[in-house]
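Annex B. Sample input.
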Amino acid sequence: MSNTLDRSANQLMRALRGDLSPGEFAASVRRAAREIGEHVSCDARYVGRIESGEIRCPNYAYERVFRHMFPGSSLQELGFAPRREVRHPERRRPPGGEPPRPGAPFEIHEENDDVHRRTFLAGGPVAVTTALGLDHPAAAEVPLGTRVGAADAHRVEAAVRDIRLLDDAHGADALFDRAGQALRRAYQLLNCGSYSAQVEQRLQAAAGELAISVGWLAHDSGRLVEARSFYAEALATARMANDAPLEAHSFCNSAFLARDAGRPREAVRAAQAARQAADGLGSARLRSLLAMREAGGWALLQDRSACERSIGTARQHFEAGPSDADPEWMSFYGEAELLGLESQCWSALSVWDLATDRARRAIALQQPHFVRNRALYTAELAHDQLGRGELAAAAESGCQVVSLFGEVRSTRIRDMVAGTVSRLRPHQSVPEVAEFVQRYDAALAG
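Annex B, continued. Sample output.
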């Protein structure tokens, strides 16, 4: 096999796709990534960019996945350019030729994606700014009529993925303001830019998903009114673009927000609207999550029968397994999340034995990189143990959450722990409780 160094189509990867659609092939890439413990966000657009030659060399994460899928094949044997040619395009400039246009090698952004992710996962707001491209001159105001291309759409899509990864690890508080800047930039591109129909479609979908991501950050950091506004903005974008997946996602998050804001009937209605939008999407896992969103509303309404029916429906859809139709944003929704949401339902119904059992199982099953969710389930467990009157056990669980305060910046989780502390303060004659209260107060003081 051979490969050229220009931007011609990658016929080799197209041949390897065979009869699979781009979406089906993207799903097989994601499955292969899970087999080796790698995380990639492959979709049909990414496959198209590979086959068109737009991505001349994948990043290291994708390289590992492709080598796993096609054992014994080098990057060049898969139709890609050598990495050194992509990293240093000036080395292949013909004598007297023009230097590369600044920012033009789109694949260099791809090459650095996994580096950026590893950097900002260990960093703070400054690292976030860099990862989302907000330290770049392009982050300035967008003049009317500015030409917007595929690279701009890619930056918005990458911002969505980066925000999700960072939130999984650290929670929302340190990220919300920076992510809001990225969202404003995305809508400036949409409203002021000049672009092709294909770029417009990508920008609308990415801007809507980014609005949902920023809405979730607002939700998790206690800004519930702002979160509702961002979700409404995403829903409006979905309706204008006739984008059913984005509409389902908007209603899904709106249902969760309504439950946390004490509007249970709105939570039920939003979950049902999400289910209607998702009817033709073919994802059983999405239907499972939406059933759990509805269950959360019924639990808050103290309708145990309706809640149990929704939980049963969620479990039935979940057991159908993952599919190629599952949205990319649902990577968090595994067995642990299902159990965590069920625990919250039983807790709202004051069925403490079931709530405690589900919270424990959720913690045991949670993948290590979902640090925020592990803290959330442990905070839920402390609350449920307290509901059972297990003061020492609740305090021990609370201590585990406090130990994660340095990593996880989530107002929502801290508020849960604060509620547990408040109820335990009068019981500091119990040694475990005294230690928990002391550690909590020290963490706040620090």
